[in-house]
Design brief:
Layout (H helix, E strand, L loop, with lengths): L3 H11 L8 E6 L5 E7 L15 E6 L2 H14 L5 E7 L2 E2 L2 E2 L4 E5 L5 E4 L10 H8 L4 E4 L2 H12 L6 E3 H8 L8 H9 L7 H4 L10 H28 L3 H6 L3 H10 L14 H10 L23 E4 L5 E5 L1 H9 L3 E5 L4 E4 L31 E5 L3 H4 L4 H4 L6 E5 H21 L12 E3 L1 H16 L5 H15 L6 H8 L4 E3 L6 H13 L1 H19 L14 H8 L9
Parallel strand pairs: 1-3, 3-8, 4-9, 9-10, 11-14
Antiparallel strand pairs: 1-2, 4-7, 5-6, 7-8, 11-12, 13-14, 15-16, 17-18
């Protein structure tokens, strides 16, 4: 058992500072509302682990200037305990969910930011966006993945590092209450939360929020962070390696122990184990909004750029290339190795073309970092011009395609995908090529065949257990379809595996229709303009700071113009 001094150090390093007698204050961005909230954190944390003895505070924020004034304090509180209580609130109108109105972020020390996204103008500060997208900062809550997906969908805000408290509760097996936040608060903190429906379903995008709404929203984030800190503390106390880590003052080791409790749970949806938990959860979680989960990216195990050198027979540098291509030339005895570092090969034949000048994009080495933020961690390939369009380009514009394949980190790739979808929808409207129409579906399903197959499966699997009236109805479905007066086992088997889908003769892929329309109207002129549009879109929405040298929105266009003698306007109409 750890002594009081060790607990003090653990609290300061692993789960931040929570002052004895700390309370949650609500402080509006107008700086004219300050009151004590209903929850006293001194009742939730039995150890006096802070010498600051300062009050936790909630800030209600509606503009960038006010957020910047409190962001330093919020970031400072995360210096040792990289845990953020995370939640979102939004309003539904006519049964349709509106964009996220309120983003709640809280530290375990009681500092809470309530950011009114419905009234906020401009992007969130880069520092805050970096913390949200950084998976090393654990965002805890009930159903955080759903909230993260909705933020991405509504505003392009990437949130990574989400851990569902329900998954931790199931793993620790220390709760007998329901797995909603209210049940977890009761189990771990002994606190009864106010979860009244009239507050939960209130107008979160109203011009001003009531004190009830402020308390409700702040407590959702603060309690989430607090539940995690209690679980982490209990685990630290029982960990035999903590004492030695404390003696050596290895802060990173302590944090690695805390974060290791979340192994296998980060950015994973909570999976219910039984129906009773599903029922309990549905009663306690109001934000039921169905989004597809985060795309599981296959990050590269090898660098995107190998920067191998390809020389002409006289030694002129032709281009940089990947190792696979260089090895192919060697294996085919079409080139010889010049140097190993950097790996350089010299062709044995005269190439079809040479660089026109030393300012050719393909002559320069390229960094294996995210071109947006410069991260050198996990990298994903990004097609600046989406493949669904590029694949239908004529060969001349497909050439030199690697210019538009750049490396992005997962967080930036997710954000870029959000902005790409906005442009795709605009293009769908412009070219009358809807993304979700019947024309965009390659295979359709026949409802009649589907009912026949369903009846066939039921009769094949459980014919003797089906009540007679129901069995008669199922048999009639099959007899009407096959136009027979009696059913054989073979016919039931055939019905149970009946193919219900058929090819949609009206199917036209969205990308094909867009490119075909452009070609029919403007030929190569329109395609070059379309390619440039996507490149400009990438620059405008992502503001990449680490693009390869000589990367350009005009890349390859001069060559196409020279080949076809086309005169292009300076800007897109």
């Amino acid at each position: 058992m750890l002594n009081h001094k060790q607990i003090t150090i653990i609290g300061g390093i692993a789960v931040a500072c929570v002052a004895a007698g700390t309370t949650i204050l609500c402080y509006s961005y107008k700086k004219n509302q300050t009151r004590k909230s209903v929850i006293n954190l001194s009742d939730l944390w039995p150890y006096n682990i802070s010498s600051k003895d300062q009050d936790g505070t909630t800030f209600l924020l509606s503009c960038p200037e006010d957020l910047e004034t409190v962001l330093d304090r919020f970031v400072q509180e995360l210096q040792y305990a990289k845990v953020i209580g995370f939640d979102c609130e939004w309003t539904s109108k006519s049964g349709k969910p509106q964009p996220v109105a309120l983003l709640q972020l809280a530290t375990v020390s009681g500092v809470c930011l309530l950011i009114r996204l419905s009234h906020y103008r401009g992007p969130l500060p880069v520092r805050l966006q970096s913390i949200l997208s950084d998976a090393s900062y654990i965002k805890v809550g009930v159903g955080p993945m759903e909230d993260a997906n909705k933020l991405l969908h509504d505003y392009g805000i990437v949130v990574s590092g989400c851990v569902d408290l329900r998954s931790l509760a199931v793993r620790t097996k220390e709760t007998k209450n329901s797995l909603g936040l209210k049940g977890l608060a009761q189990s771990y903190l002994g606190v009864t939360m106010n979860k009244q429906k009239h507050i939960q379903c209130s107008a979160w995008d109203a011009p001003s929020l009531s004190q009830e709404q402020i308390d409700y929203a702040a407590n959702d984030a603060l309690i989430a962070a607090k539940v995690f800190s209690v679980i982490a503390r209990s685990k630290l106390e029982s960990n035999v390696h903590v004492a030695s880590a404390l003696n050596n003052a290895v802060n990173n080791t302590l944090w690695s122990i805390v974060s290791s409790y979340c192994q296998g749970l980060v950015d994973c949806k909570f999976k219910q184990r039984n129906q009773s938990h599903k029922q309990n959860n549905s009663q306690n979680v109001g934000n039921n909004f169905n989004f597809k989960p985060f795309k599981l990216y296959s990050t590269r195990k090898q660098p995107l750029y190998d920067n191998c050198k390809l020389q002409a027979p006289d030694g002129q540098l032709l281009a940089t290339c990947d190792r696979k291509k260089a090895n192919w030339y060697i294996e085919k005895e079409l080139a010889d190795i010049v140097t190993e570092t950097p790996f350089t090969i010299r062709l044995r034949f005269e190439p079809a073309g040479r660089p026109a000048s030393d300012r050719d994009y393909y002559l320069y080495d390229k960094q294996n970092v995210c071109v947006v933020c410069g991260s050198n961690g996990a990298i994903v390939r990004k097609n600046v011009v989406p493949h669904e369009y590029r694949r239908h380009f004529p060969l001349l514009l497909k050439d030199h395609v690697s210019h538009d394949i750049v490396p992005l980190c997962v967080a930036c790739h997710q954000r870029a995908g959000y902005y790409d979808n906005i442009l795709r929808n605009q293009i769908a409207d412009e070219y009358k090529a809807p993304l979700g129409s019947a024309q965009a579906v390659q295979m359709l399903e026949d409802p009649e065949r589907r009912s026949v197959r369903s009846a066939g499966k039921a009769l094949d699997n459980a014919r003797d257990r089906i009540p007679e009236p129901r069995k008669g109805g199922l048999e009639k479905v099959l007899m009407d379809y096959y136009q027979v007066t009696s059913l054989s086992e073979e016919l039931i088997k055939e019905a149970s595996i009946l193919e219900t889908r058929y090819h949609n003769e009206a199917y036209i892929p969205h990308g094909f229709k867009v490119i075909d329309t452009i070609q029919s109207e403007n030929s190569l002129h329109g395609l070059i303009d379309f390619e440039k549009r996507w490149r400009e879109h990438f620059l405008a929405t992502m503001n990449p700071q680490h693009l390869p040298h000589l990367w350009s929105v005009e890349h390859n266009h001069d060559r196409v113009i020279d080949a076809f003698g086309i005169c292009f306007p300076t800007q897109r109409s």
